[in-house]
Amino acid sequence: MTFLLRYLYNYYMQVYKPEKRQAKRSGRKIFGVFVILVIFAGFIMSIWFLFILLNPISIEHTQFTISQGQSVNVISQNLFEDGIIKNKFVFETYTYLKGIESKLKAGEYNLPNVINIKRLTEILVAGEIPQEWELTVIEGWTVKDIAWRLENMGKFQTKELFEATGVNQPNNKFNFDISSYDFFSDKPAMANLEGYMFPDTYRFFAYATIDDIVRKMLNNFDKKLTLQLRQDIQAQGKTIFDIITMASIIEREVMTDNDRAIVSGIFWKRFEAGVPLQADSTINYITGKKTPALSAEDLKINSFYNTYLYGDLPPGPISNPGLASIKAAIYPAASDYWYFLTDSQSNVHYGRDFEEHKANKEKYLN
To answer: Could you give the angle at which helices 240-253 and 257-273 cross, rounded to 10 degrees?
Structure first.
């Protein structure tokens, strides 16, 4: 009997109990895999949620009204139907998580053309009447000029525009997404956005961000640089970047359309012949000066923007040119001139050779 009990015990230990232990270990493995899958799914959902929340979209209908007493679900549905949001779940969930579902204020809103859900909820919670303000960008202004103007208006600090456009930033790195603008396809990777902030008078809502400022100017540039202009640039074997760089120099050199076309012809002729452009405006871009007279020390500055030392175009635009200068860069006027100078009255005097140019300098600059 004792032998039989011992035999049965040993049989149980060898057969049944190990299976239970194995089943327990298998159960733990399955549970661990399940937990990992849940965590991974949660991570993917979080990434997706943040992408929908923060991803800006372009909207056609910028007018939106919230009526008194409307629930967040009704507001969400109306936003979806107007194409202002692409996902009601994210909008509603975000308002619940933030505890602002009952704080969306009734009123009429003029929304930005590009907006994400996070910013949209901020606007709807603030419920402010969007006051507009105006910014005029003059032809030939640099990004620095625009930044200083914005700061003097009390709108943004200069560094905010610099960071968005890459000006004064290490390696010209900027934090503005330009992937949707095809006119940047030939822009060197290291070049900033100088030259593309199209001069014009702009109106912005009170809640406009620095990205709105940059985007509106780039959109204007995109509109003004028509398909015909782009085709003519391509037919000449030039790039948009080259044209804008040349136009930015022309903009800072002369003031009339006739002079712009002639000066464009002189610059392109010198460029193609490998002769330095010798544009004073490029030196002023280095020094920050705005005076027409250059010192001997200025002319010796070792910079690729120094078109007295280097025969190529500068590394990038030196200003933001207007449409007239852009067209002049595309359609230069042929002439016998190789030199020009501008006197104190902004009159332009041309020279066919260096001797004639020297005579003009003695006559008009002394």
So the answer is: 120
